[in-house]
Amino acid sequence: MTSFPVPTMPAPPVGVVGLGQLGGSLAAALVAAGRQVTGWDVDPAAREAAATRGVRTARELTGIVVLAVPLPAMAAALEGLDVDPDATVTDLGSVKAPVLAELGSALGGRYVGGHPMCGTERSGPEATDPGLFTGARWALCLEPGTELPRWLRVAEVALAVGAEVVPATAAEHDDAVAAVSHVPHLLAAALAAAAGDAGPLALALAAGSFRDGTRVIGSDPGFVTAMVQGNAGPTTAALARVLEQLARPWPELVAAGHAVRAGGPAGRRPVRVPLERAALLSLGRAGGAVTRRLAAFVEGYVPDVG
Amino acid sequence: MTSFPVPTMPAPPVGVVGLGQLGGSLAAALVAAGRQVTGWDVDPAAREAAATRGVRTARELTGIVVLAVPLPAMAAALEGLDVDPDATVTDLGSVKAPVLAELGSALGGRYVGGHPMCGTERSGPEATDPGLFTGARWALCLEPGTELPRWLRVAEVALAVGAEVVPATAAEHDDAVAAVSHVPHLLAAALAAAAGDAGPLALALAAGSFRDGTRVIGSDPGFVTAMVQGNAGPTTAALARVLEQLARPWPELVAAGHAVRAGGPAGRRPVRVPLERAALLSLGRAGGAVTRRLAAFVEGYVPDVG
C-alpha cells in the first residue's frame, strides 16, 4: 500500500465565490455538514440569501476556495478578493481544459478542476437547494501536476455534501461531458427549432417524447452557448459521432440506443484504490467513483457488470 | 351556421380490439365514463385483466370499433371477429397514412383514423391506466371521404375519456408526429448509442440532460422501429430538417431552440367551429383543439398568442 502524505484533520475552511444555484447550494450544504464556510458574490442579494442559510460572507478566503461563477467570469473571479496564497482553488465549471489552461498556469498544483454533474434548468440564488449534490457524480480532475493531498481535500468537500467523486483528467472529462451533456443540449435545441418551423399543429401534437427531448434547452441560452462553445472541440467530435449513428439503418440504431439506455451496470462492486494518480484515473475510466476516504487509500466502487 | 346531420343520442357502444396499455386504458376509462364497452384481445390474460375493470369481453363488436393493436397487426386485427358491417372503425396507431391506405380501401367513409398523443415507455395490460388520456391531445383524421357524423361519434369517445380532439388529415398528422415524436425517438437512440461508445466514464458522468434526452428509447425497440419505419418518408424529411438546424452556428441554434421551448401560447381563446371539414382542419392547423360538441358546431380553442 502506498503511503502518501494524506491530509490531516481538521478539515480546512471553504470559501465559495459566486452564490447562485450551484455556489449557493454548495455553501448551504457545507454549513449543514458542519464545515466552516465563507461566501462571496458581487450581487448583494445573493450574499444576503446565503447569509440567511448561515453562510458568513466576506472577501477574505482561505483553505479551499471554490469558484462557482459562469465560465466567462472564471479567469477574473478572484479579482478584488483577499485569497490566502496557499489556498487550494477548485471550480464547478462545466468544461475543464479551458479553465485548467486559464487558472493552472497561475496556480499550478494548487488548482484542482471540478464539475458536479447536477443543477437544473433553473438558475440564480432562488434556485438554491442544499440537497442538490446528494447522489450526484462530481468529476474531479487529476492532472500530472495536481498535488494529490489538495485533490483529496477537495474530494472531501464533494463527499461532505453527498456526492460521489469521479477522478478524470480535464481532457477525459471534456470528452465525456460533450457526449452526455453538451451534445444533448444541441440536439434539444435542434429538435425544438425544427418543430417550431413545422408549425402549430406539430407543437399541438407534441407530447412526452418532445417534452423530454427538449427540456434541457429551457435553460438560459447564454449559459448553454458558453458551455458548448467552451468545449467546442470535444462537442464537435461528439456531435459527429451522433450524426454517424443517425446514418445507420433505423432498426440497428434503435436496437443500439435501447441497449445502452436499458442496460447499465447490474450493481456496484466495492473497491479500495491506493492514493495514486494512475489508480484513481483507472477507477474513473471504469465508470467507478470514490465514495469515502480512509488513511492510505480511498474507498469507492466500480460498476458490477456480472 | 351549417346544419349537419349531427349524431343523435344515445352514444353508441364501443368495441376495443387489443387490450394492452392503450386499449386496456381506453376500455377502462370508457367503462368509468358510463359507456357500454366490449373488449377483445388474442391474449386471454389481457382479456382477464380488462374484465376485472368491468369490460365485457366478446368477439361480437358494434357501434364504434377501436383497433388498439400494433401497426403490423392492424390489417388483420378484425379477422376472426364478428363486426357489425355498419360499425365505425377507428384506430390508435401512431402513423395514419399507411393505416388509411390499408383500412380505408375496404371500409371507405366508415374508417376514421385516430392517434391519442399519450402512452409511456411501459406497455402491456399491466400498464393500464384509465387516466392515461386526461388532458392528452387526440389527433382524429378528416379525409375528403370521411363521413362527418362518424368522425363526431369517434370524437365523443376521445372527449369522454378526457382528451382534446385535434382535427388533421392523415398526411398532416404524419408530418407533425415525425417532427415531435418519431425524430425524438431516433435522436434519443443516437445519443444513447454514441454515449455507449464513448465508454463507462461518459455514462458515469451522465446526468439529467442525458437521462431526459434518452428516456424515450427505453421503449420496446420493436415498437419504436415499427413506428419510425411506418412513417419513413415524413420521418426522413423531419430528420433532415433537424440536421439542417444542427449545422447552424451554435449561438443561433441555441437561441432558436430556446425560443420554441420557452415560448408557447399565452393562453387559449375559446372558439366555435361549424361542422365542416375545412373549418375543423383550419382549427387543427392553428394549433387548436375540439373540447366539446354542441348541436350544430363544436366548441374548442385556438392558442392565444396575444
Automatic annotation (TrEMBL), chains A, B:
Domain Prephenate/arogenate dehydrogenase intervals: 12-284
Report any one BP term from Gene Ontology.
tyrosine biosynthetic process
Q: Can you name one GO molecular function term for this protein? A: prephenate dehydrogenase (NAD+) activity
- Give a Pfam family name: PDH_C
Q: Does the keyword Ubl conjugation apply?
A: no
Query: InterPro entries of this UniProt entry?
Result: 6-PGluconate_DH-like_C_sf, D-isomer_DH_CS1, NAD(P)-bd_dom_sf, PDH_C, PDH_N, Preph/Arog_dehydrog, Prephen_DH
Q: Sorted alphabetically, which keywords does the UniProt record give?
A: Oxidoreductase
**Family classification:** Belongs to the prephenate/arogenate dehydrogenase family.
The protein here is known as: Prephenate dehydrogenase
